[in-house]
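Researcher: Please predict.
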Amino acid sequence: MDAEDISIAAQWHGEPEIFVNELLKVGFLEKGSDGVLSIHDWADHNPWAVGAAARSEKAKKAAQKRWGTKPGNAPSNAPSISEQCKDSGAAMPQHAKGNAPSPSPSPIPKDKKHCASPAADAPDDEPFYLTKRRRKLKGQQLTWFEQFWETFAYRRGKAAAGDVWMDIRVTQALVPEILAGAKRTAAERPALQRSGKTPKFPQGWLSERRWEDEPETPAGSETQVPKTDRYWRDKAQGLPGYRPDMTWTECRDLASNQGGAAA
């Protein structure tokens, strides 16, 4: 299993690599010299599961020894019915000579054509995308997802992102918000990479609803920050006269009067 498989099995919707690295740090997982991930001391904690293959092989050998069979030769060991019953074959009536009366009218229809539903017989030709959890993303959801994928422009873990897309149940009203956020994130990504930071994968970006993030304010443009409720409360905290039960307008007046922010 790779990092994505482990994160899906654990129902982790963030970055798979971050999740696996944390499991390695705490010692829950360990990586062998061949790079294969495994649970720490799995054989000690779950010997029953570890010995499943050996038990199965042992049971097969015991059965072969008991019945005197050999692998790959089982059909030839059982005597056929014709050989066992050849001396009393006359006592067994043939099925074609049964004494049951024929029903009248016959239950077998003369016209053997069946009337199947066209929808049931028609092949499913609708295009779809198979997600990491083997689900089919299709129809309008597939169209919207492909638009997001192209706009986000960081093509990592598409199958896992498809699962999150299906989980959050995207609506038509939500699509413009997601696409706008994806476009903004794509524009900010080059600066993020130049600073040495790892960009957010589509899977984690969707699961964390990052399209709701506010745009980052460029350095030196403090006056461009929206004057929201939270903005004024943060400005007023710590100033003389501040009370936790103050309304945001009272916080605004307090911060403005004491030079905490420009009105």
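Model: The mean pLDDT is 77.
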